[in-house]
Amino acid sequence: MENYPLLWRRTRPAKKAAGRPPKLSVDEVVAAAIRIADTDGLAAASMARVAGALGTATMTLYTYVPSRADLIALMVDDVLLARRLEFGDGWRERVALFSARTREMYAAHPWLTEVSLVRPPLGPGTMAEREFLIATMTAAGVPVGQINRAALTVTAYVYAFAREAGEDARLSRDSGQSTESWWHERGDFWEDWFDVEAYPAMTALWNAGGFEDQAAHDYGLALILDGIERSVGKDSGIERPVEKDVRIERSVE
C-alpha cells in the first residue's frame, strides 16, 4: 500500500511535531538514494548505504522513510516528476517532449529498468504524466472514448524505447564496455557465421544500405501520431477543435 503522506509531502505537508527539528528531510534521503542508485545500481541503495551517505544511523533513517519499498517508490516518483513536462506548443510537439525527456530520464537513472511501472507509485510524478498525456490527446481532438487509449498507446511506445536506453546505460556501467564496442567485438560473426542464403531478406536490406538509418524511434512515433491524427473525428460525429482554442496554462512543477 502506498505511503501517500510521503508521496504527497510537498503538496500536503505534515504538521510539525513538537521537540527538536529533524536533522534531515525526506527529500534529502530520497536524493541520496537516487545518487547511489545512479552510480552503483538499485541494489546498492540499501537503507544502510543511504544512512551512511547521510552520516546517520540506519535505524534513524527509518524514522524518515519506514521501509525500503517506500524509499524506492519515492525515488521513482521523484525522477518521474523531475522531467518537468511543460504544457505548450502543438500536441505533437508535446508528445515529442514527453518522449525525449523520458529517454533522458532512463539514461540518467538506469536503475529504473529494474523497477516495474505496471503498478506505479500514485504520487505527483505519476499523476503529472497522466495529466500531461490526457490533456495532450484532448488538445489533439481525440474523442473522449479514445483519449485514454491514445495516451496509453503513446506511453507504451515511449517507455519501450526509453527502457532500452536505460538498459544500454546500465549494461555499459556494469560491464565497463559500450554497446558500440560490444558489437564491434562481434564483427567476425557476420563473416564466419552469418548465412546469407538462410537470411535473404536481411542480406538484401544490408546490401541496399537499409541498416544505415537507425532512427526507428522517430519513425515509429510519427506513425503512431499520424494514426491518431487520422482517427480524429472519424466515425465519431465529433469535429476536431482548433488547437489554439485549447488553452492549458499551468505547468507541472
Features:
253 residues; disordered C terminus; Tetracycline Repressor, domain 2; flat; 12 helices; 0% strand; mainly alpha; Arc Repressor Mutant, subunit A
Detailed description of the structure:
The C terminus is likely disordered. The protein starts with a helix and ends in a 22-residue tail after the last helix. 24% of the residues are buried. The chain is 58% helix and 0% strand. The radius of gyration is 23 Å and the shape is flat. The protein folds into 2 domains: 76 residues, Arc Repressor Mutant, subunit A (Orthogonal Bundle), CATH 1.10.10; 159 residues, Tetracycline Repressor, domain 2 (Orthogonal Bundle). It is an all-alpha fold and 253 residues long. It has 12 helices and no strands.
